[in-house]
Amino acid sequence: MIIKLTAAFISSLISVNAIAATPLGLPPVPIPANNPQSAEKIKLGDKLYHDKTLSADGKVSCSTCHEEKKGFTDNLPVSKGIEGKSGTRNAPTVINAAYYTSQFWDGREPDLEGQSKGPFINPVEGGLASHQVLLDKIRANKDYITAFKKVFGVTNSAITIDHVAKSIASFERTIIGGNSPFDHYQYGGDDKALNAAEKRGLEVFLNKGRCVSCHRIEQTQALFTDNRFHNIGIGFKKIQAKENQTAAALVKKKHNTKLDMDAEVLTNKYVSELGRFAVTENLTQVGAFKTPTLRNLSLTAPYMHDGSLKTLEDVVDFYNNGGRIKETDPLSGFQSGGIRPLHLDDKQKKDLVAFLKALTSPEYKKMAGK
Ligand code: HEC
Ligand code: HEC
Fold first, then answer.
1. What is the Cα–Cα distance from 139 to 142, expressed in whole angstroms?
2. Which end of the chain is more exposed for a tag (fewer CB within 10 A), N or C?
3. For residue 3, what pLDDT is reported?
């Protein structure tokens, strides 16, 4: 018994330590004052994150679409939830989501706590009728009752959706990834961490490709995002020439009904393409999406909010053509001024891809069996 307790105590110390250690190339994880990390809370969040019984068909958990073995994505163009129902968007990785200043491709939730409440009751994700149904399931489970009591000091009937959200968010704040070959080169003083092609690719990224203007690299760390929203020309074809009508219809619906935006965005393929506009109703943000991190791209294909680009070669061609699949394709009327043809030659394109592949964290590569 004593041995058992000691082992549990030591392992809890180790995991608290593991939260505190910041990997090379990343800033410390922001922890909100009202939701401090603890080993027990992280463990509870981990359990909730992987629990398929908390969905309408008993087959869907967070990890269905954000799976360890797939760089915390599902490697599908757009996600599939209960009964194989398809949504409208590509599942972003959870790795380093803790650093974003808003969540989802359109930033409609401010933080991980807010984000984690949506999937349980989204009709194409967890599919539960309400958060009450979720809480009923949790309150009927002895292990959960014990765990929530331990973490939050609440008894059965006092467990709320906020406790659930806080636990999951705490777990997600441990899913972070730096320490890539790029980090060892850039921040670790190891000149050999990148090969010649990857170093040339970094040059393209910083200069001729102008990637860094949105996918930021700072003096002491690199999140590869500016946490802002841009229309780079993805997906607009679905609402081409209908942007204004689609936008007006959504605004009307938002103002006349109590609209569940999470469900609306993920079930209506036209509204999905409005991007940031759906949140701000600012016409300059039609088709604008959040700049995603570029870390661990080699594990998270396909790419973009609609999963429309299969490979990193396709992504680089897309940018090289000024935000178009083909140079002859029309441009979105709302496209960001920062997206212009780049005139990269074949070698520069190859080097840029090599660099993007050098942003993979060793532990997630290992989890993916690569
Ligand atoms: C059916 C698949 C599915 C399930 C289940 C699911 N997600 Fe997601 N997740 C997605 C998709 C798709 C998006 C992007 C939606 C959007 O941007 O509108 C997303 C977005 C996110 C984001 C935002 C990341 C970013 O870059 O902005 C986080 C964090 C996240 N999910 C965590 C979770 C958690 C926690 C759960 C469980 C409570 C969960 N997801 C369940 C598919 C899923
Ligand atoms: C004007 C800002 C901006 C610039 C410049 C830019 N990006 Fe992006 N990038 C974005 C945004 C926004 C998205 C998401 C767009 C979407 O899904 O609609 C994105 C998406 C991506 C993705 C997909 C990531 C994923 O997880 O799906 C890759 C890869 C990428 N960019 C690489 C690059 C490279 C390489 C360059 C330089 C050639 C570059 N970006 C230049 C803003 C930018």
1. 8
2. N
3. 44
